[in-house]
Amino acid sequence: MPDARAEIIAAVREYLAQNFLYDRKDLRLEGDSSFTANKVLDSLGVMALLGHLEGTYGIAIEESDLTVENLDSLDRIAAFVLRKRALV
After folding, report:
1. pLDDT exceeding 70 applies to what percent of the chain?
2. Structure pTM?
3. Which architecture characterizes domain 4-87 according to CATH?
4. Residues 6 or more apart in contact with residue 11 via CB below 8 angstroms
């Protein structure tokens, strides 16, 4: 059985690569790589990512969810999505 966490990480990594990192081939985005420290997303990019997560994973992201702890790395996003999906 596939690991849901690993699938989320791979899918979000691919989404970011195709939509935001196409001109940054030098950046190796690991699971714990900070989006903030690596300047991966600007404010519009964050909004696009949130819409992608909501649409792809069928979750509702509340304003209170918009924290570094939830959204600043692939690992954190995977954990966040899994928590939100458990509530559905």
Report:
1. 97
2. 0.90
3. Orthogonal Bundle (1.10)
4. 56
